[in-house]
Amino acid sequence: MFVSGEKTMINNLYITVRSTGTVLLLFCYFSCTAQALKHIELNLRSDNDLYLFNKQDQYYTNGIFLNIRTVADSARLSAKETNRLWGITVGQKMYNAYTAQIRYIEEVDRPITAYLFIAADLDRYFSNESFLSFSVELGTIGQRALGRQFQERIHKALNLYDIAGWE
Questions:
Q1: Which one of 100, 118, 121, 163 is at 20 to 30 Å from 39 when CA atoms are compared?
Q2: Which of 154, 167, 66 shows the shortest CA–CA distance to 113?
Q3: What sign does the dihedral 99-101-106-111 (CA atoms) show?
């Protein structure tokens, strides 16, 4: 019989494995078909304050973004339009207090949370050198954003300190 906390942990692990698998499958698919899909751009971006080699998570501590962009068929553009780009981004941003090594609640100087989102955008370029851009974003914060789980996995993989403060 599972205890509630164990069941939640197993569900979170399942979600993480499934998400990572989906990203890897997308990456492999677009990598393998790159020659056939000449108008597709795949971009994976990561930013983390650990890249500064200070071994300390502070404030905006991590972001990971997968972006896929494609160009529209030029035959479908109006005479005034020179180019049209479509894009979809899936990402997560993570925010900590001054430190992720919280011992007392008084050390929390700002909310500790994550932001998980999906965004779509459209960029239109015109022959008169003007530009029009549209974007829409849908996201969630808090536990549904899986920030704690992601940060714990990063720290475990890199053999860093145990995090605290997400409670």
A1: 118
A2: 167
A3: positive
In a domain? residue 31: no
| Joined tokens for residue 123 | 């960029």
**For residue 100, with 0-12 CB atoms within 10 Å meaning exposed, 13-18 middle and 19 or more buried, which class applies?**
buried
In a domain, 29, yes or no: no
Q: What is the C-alpha to C-alpha distance for residues 26 and 20, in angstroms, rounded to an integer?
A: 10
The tally of domains found in the chain comes to: 1
Q: Which residue range forms the structural domain that includes residue 128?
A: 38-157
Cα dist from 32 to 25, 35, 53, 71, 113, whole Å: 10, 8, 34, 19, 36
The per-residue pLDDT for range 48-92, each reduced to its tens digit, is: 766 666 666 667 677 889 999 988 877 777 888 888 889 999 999
* pLDDT band at residue 32 under the 50/70/90 scheme: low
Specify if 60 maps to a domain: yes
In a domain, 14, yes or no: no
Block residue for tokens 């500790």:
112
Contact between 101 and 161 (Cβ < 8 Å): yes
Contacts of 72 (CB under 8 A, 6+ apart): 83, 84, 85, 86
In order of 27, 47, 92, 126, the CA distances from 117 in angstroms are 19, 16, 6, 30
